[in-house]
Amino acid sequence: xxxATINAAALALFAIALCWRIDRIRREGAGLQxxxxxxxxxxxxxxxxxxxxxxxxxxxxxxxxxxxxxxxYCLLAFAVAALVIVFFFGSAERQRQRRAGVEAVxxxxxxxxxxxxxxxxxxxxxxxxxxxxxVQHFGFALFFVIxxxxxxxxxxxxxxxxxxxVGLADGxxxxxxxxxxxxxxxVGLGSLIQTIFVVLSGLGLATVPxxxxxxxxxxxxxxxxxxxGICYPMVxxxxxxxxxNLRHRRDYADLxxxxxxxxxxxxxxxxPLRSVADVDGSINLLYxxxxxxxxxxxxxxxxLLPDDFDQLTDRDQVFYLRDAVEVYREAGGSSGAVRQVxxxxxxxxxxxxxxxxxxxRALADQPVARKHNRTG
Length: 376
Fold this sequence. Notes:
Layout: H1 2-28, H2 32-50, H3 53-62, H4 67-86, H5 93-119, H6 138-168, H7 171-202, H8 210-254, H9 256-265, H10 283-301, H11 314-331, H12 349-365
Helix pairs in contact: 1-2, 1-8, 2-4, 4-5, 4-6, 5-6, 6-7, 7-8, 8-10, 9-10, 9-11, 9-12, 11-12
């Protein structure tokens, strides 16, 4: 029951991770490393699909008895080979491509070996679980020795490469890599323990059934940690995006008083919509448009604002800004040199928006005063 639950959770998480990887490739383009990561996640997703009872039964009845098991381990081997490419320690794309070519050799040998071993295994035994009795059949034992040895080799290569990356990484990336490192190490150790059991029992040297339980527990824990390491950057990126969107949605609404005031006198600063989709588009796009439009309007209103406008109190800034808007509206424009006002502390959009948000909130808090402007 526990293993089935873990498999179901793994399938769901791998499917989500696959969608995320495809979206990343669509947005950022694909080099060998991101493509290999997507291939690895795709292969793992399909591997867990293949062990679904209904899928397994369909594969065994459509192809041959034991086909589901062959497909499962071949997909795992393919995924591990892709992970070796992903975590290959080297920045040059040509080096990574060369390593991909090298890794193709043991992968093909392992996949051929798995198919041959399954075909020489007696049909009634092909779908049985690993036990001290089933490993007495040469083909059955050979199948799991090949699968275990390749997984140990591939996962070991990944662990060695990740260890080098951990030394260079910091922050959340370091934590993610450490979780991945632990997970892959445990999965590799579980495969090694199972392989040792198969060899010892198959050769009649010793029979230690508890090794299978230890292997299952270690592999399950490793799979969970591996999933956590894979999903952590995805979840963190999504969480940051959600917080970013929520903050921009709030700031977009908070800028409404300042935007309405300035664009009432300068409607020409409002950027034209490229399409109807812009209206219902990303809140970040709408927020950026609003900041740019306000900045453009303030630039044109700046000749009508005092030289020390940035140093005034909130109340005075609100008064002079409303006054400048009224003068601009009545005069049909402004004369004099323009200048930047309410300059942000840094050269980025959020920093540029901070002083705008401050005065916009002050505008919302202060009702319009019933008094004439400087021309009245």
